[in-house]
Design goal:
Elements lengths: L2 E9 L2 H17 L3 E5 L13 E7 L2 H9 L1 H10 L3 E9 L2
Antiparallel strand pairs: 1-3, 1-4, 2-3
């Protein structure tokens, strides 16, 4: 069953965050992930959001978890976490 990473981000330092993006994209691909939305316009109808929204499809929850906890993505996160506020979740598809 496909699993979707739903990520909402406010970036505080674009230059430092670019180091994250440079590593995160290849890590997503390595684990079979596919970006469905990456930035772009966000129109809020209810509730709140952050400035940047990303949706990534993974083949299944196990692969998504392996990606997130894998050394490639953890290295990327070391650049992102100090310079951003993020909401990151995995949702199983239907």
């Amino acid at each position: 069953m496909p699993t979707y990473a739903i990520v909402q981000v406010d970036v505080k330092d674009a230059d430092e965050y670019a180091k994250y993006a440079e590593l995160a994209g290849p890590a997503v691909a390595q684990y079979g992930g596919e970006f469905l939305a990456r930035g772009g316009t966000v129109e809020i109808k209810e509730g709140t959001s952050r400035a940047r929204c990303v949706i990534i499809r993974f083949p299944d929850m196990e692969t998504a978890q392996s990606f997130y906890h894998g050394p490639e993505y953890q290295k990327a996160l070391s650049y992102a976490l100090p310079v951003s506020e993020r909401d990151y979740k995995f949702v199983e598809g239907v």
